[in-house]
UniProtKB/TrEMBL annotation:
Domain N-acetyltransferase: 10-158
Protein name, entry field: Acetyltransferase
Lineage: Bacteria, Pseudomonadati, Thermomicrobiota, Thermomicrobia, Thermomicrobiales
Statement: the UniProt record of this protein carries the keyword Zinc: no
PROSITE patterns (UniProt xref): GNAT
Length: 159
């Protein structure tokens, strides 16, 4: 990667405990990008939240530009399956390959840890991104926020 690309994409690094609230706010701004109304966003406010405990317990990696986080993902796992519970980018940086860079880092990290598959329950608006990354839809799962709402469930083979 050239130096110019590194500056455009940012560097992916582990999240810090003091960034938990910043990452939670970033996730909500990213969800708002899809045009959800305020009532919907208010109900989701706690769903994409990153806690300090999450930072110490799970793999959370951040891409930052000029020292400010512009995207992150959270990876959890047990057995042979890793779960990508979050992948969010700042709305103003969508289309600048930060999401792709985070995805590639998450896949590499999951492989390094010996997982055989990566599962993603995603916002319907983000499904196309994950399909373009090579994931396949294997079904739906109920939303934890809205009873009766189904969210895409995707799988990506790691081995």
């Amino acid at each position: 990667m050239t130096e110019g690309m590194a500056q455009t994409r940012g560097i992916i690094r582990p999240a810090r405990i003091d960034e938990a609230a910043t990452l939670s706010a970033l996730a909500l701004r990213s969800k708002a990008h899809w045009g959800y109304d305020e009532a919907f966003l208010a109900a989701c406010r706690d769903d994409p939240t990153v806690t300090p405990e999450d930072v110490t317990t799970h793999t959370i990696r951040v891409t930052a530009l000029a020292g400010r986080p512009c995207g992150f993902y959270q990876l959890r796992g047990a057995g042979e399956t890793a779960t990508l519970t979050d992948l969010w980018v700042e709305p103003g940086t969508i289309g600048q390959r930060h999401g792709r860079a985070l995805w590639e880092d998450a896949v590499a990290t999951a492989r390094e840890r010996g997982f055989r598959e990566l599962r993603v329950q995603c916002d319907p608006h983000a499904e196309g991104f994950y399909l373009a990354m090579g994931a396949e839809r294997i079904g739906t799962e109920p939303s934890t926020v809205f009873p009766g709402r189904e969210l895409p469930l995707l799988r990506f083979a790691l081995a």
